[in-house]
UniProtKB/TrEMBL annotation, chains A, B:
<dbReference type="InterPro" id="IPR023772">
    <property type="entry name" value="DNA-bd_HTH_TetR-type_CS"/>
</dbReference>
<dbReference type="GO" id="GO:0003700">
    <property type="term" value="F:DNA-binding transcription factor activity"/>
</dbReference>
<dbReference type="InterPro" id="IPR009057">
    <property type="entry name" value="Homeodomain-like_sf"/>
</dbReference>
<dbReference type="InterPro" id="IPR041678">
    <property type="entry name" value="TetR_C_16"/>
</dbReference>
<dbReference type="InterPro" id="IPR036271">
    <property type="entry name" value="Tet_transcr_reg_TetR-rel_C_sf"/>
</dbReference>
<keyword id="KW-0804">Transcription</keyword>
<dbReference type="Pfam" id="PF17920">
    <property type="entry name" value="TetR_C_16"/>
</dbReference>
<dbReference type="InterPro" id="IPR001647">
    <property type="entry name" value="HTH_TetR"/>
</dbReference>
<dbReference type="Pfam" id="PF00440">
    <property type="entry name" value="TetR_N"/>
</dbReference>
<feature type="DNA-binding region" description="H-T-H motif">
    <location>
        <begin position="37"/>
        <end position="56"/>
    </location>
</feature>
<keyword id="KW-0238">DNA-binding</keyword>
<dbReference type="InterPro" id="IPR050109">
    <property type="entry name" value="HTH-type_TetR-like_transc_reg"/>
</dbReference>
<protein>
    <submittedName>
        <fullName>TetR family transcriptional regulator</fullName>
    </submittedName>
</protein>
<dbReference type="GO" id="GO:0000976">
    <property type="term" value="F:transcription cis-regulatory region binding"/>
</dbReference>
<feature type="domain" description="HTH tetR-type">
    <location>
        <begin position="14"/>
        <end position="74"/>
    </location>
</feature>
<keyword id="KW-0805">Transcription regulation</keyword>
DNA sequence: CACAAATGTAAATGTTTGTTTACTTAGGCC
DNA sequence: GGCCTAAGTAAACAAACATTTACATTTGTG
């Protein structure tokens, strides 16, 4: 049996910064901002606590950086999306496991709050952009009602993600892509008919 | 101008207990478990911190009591509900402001976690019961797919509540009962066709 | 009215928190 | 190859935290 020694990482600021981002994101998503301690994060990364303040000035700064990552990931997912793709991509991205930058992760990250008002504004802007892209995919004039309906689609995605990852409620938590695609198709077609 | 002195409440264990429950629920819903301090709660109630431990043994105990309240409230809301009522009641209960025991409050409370596994089990049981009642309202045999579809309805309610109360995302955050009833009807009919 | 139990408070306790400081170690460049 | 800067660490810091203890006040009752 190997000694499970992590292959001793060489000193590299960029790599360490990235590593901290990665493990912090997982913690923030799973436990939330307040319940996550900077020592938790540092231990996960196998580095000293002080590095968090060195690279991100504060716990808050690290959180904002994680939020920025989630924003990029989720924007990439919904960019130039078409109405036909919404259902399939939602089912796929939601059902697919929690790998780095998955839609589930990004959505959960967007639900986390640090209490800072600036962060709340960021979250609102990101989600507003997402719902506008969904509304645009519907192809209809971007009126208030279309936007509202797009946000209900978004709400469904968020709710499903919550029930699956945070609450682990059966059977939806164990549903695979194939199980989800039917209900999701019905919801999207009902909310954003072509 | 009056001195704004709160009408000095007489000593009464039951009343104080209830008062603590009330203000704690609001805090837990708004700020989450970890971000809420027992001093916040005690100050809101205008009583000494030690009373929390006296009446609920711990912060955790107080949280569980709040969760129990939310469970009762939400069960009352979905008990014996019929398919026709789901849409109207969802739209009404979601749109209606955040008064004591509102559906929005109960749902938000169910999303809060203290980290304790026992609490996670409670939340899962409550939501499972809710989704079973929704499935029962659909009138169809209680197979897995009906339950899954009922949980997607629940997910939509949760998502909308989150977007409204926690993220305050416009325009869904400002939508009134009349604005919501259309999209909600479409979603419920699509997921649980009669 | 007195007194005992119930209700409430103030203050102290020991952790845990995020952050800072002073120090050590590794790595690239002339 | 020595050296200077970048990268990382250990230890200490004060503030905030949940909880406990010891004490005060109110309230119902004989």
């Amino acid at each position: 049996m190997s000694t499970e020694q992590v292959p001793r990482r060489r000193r590299n600021a960029a790599d360490t910064r990235q590593l901290l981002l990665h493990v912090a994101r997982l913690r923030f998503i799973r436990d939330g901002y307040a319940a996550t301690t900077v020592r938790d994060i540092a231990d996960d990364a196998g580095v000293n606590v002080a590095l968090i303040n060195r690279y991100f000035t504060s716990k808050e700064g690290l959180f904002e950086a994680c939020l920025g990552m989630a924003a990029s990931d989720i924007n990439r997912d919904v960019d130039n999306i078409t109405l036909d793709q919404i259902t399939a991509r939602m089912a796929n991205k939601i059902a697919t496991g929690t790998d780095e930058g998955s839609l589930q992760d990004s959505l959960m990250m967007l639900l986390r709050t640090s209490g800072e008002e600036r962060v709340n504004l960021m979250r609102r802007e990101i989600l507003h952009a997402v719902s506008e892209k969904l509304a645009a995919a519907a192809g209809r004039p971007a009126d208030e009602e279309t936007l509202l309906r797009a946000q209900v689609v978004l709400a469904t995605a968020i709710g499903i993600t919550l029930l699956r990852t945070s609450l682990r409620l059966a059977p939806i938590a164990n549903a695979d892509e194939q199980d989800l695609i039917g209900p999701l198709t019905d919801v999207v077609n009902a909310l954003l008919p072509r």
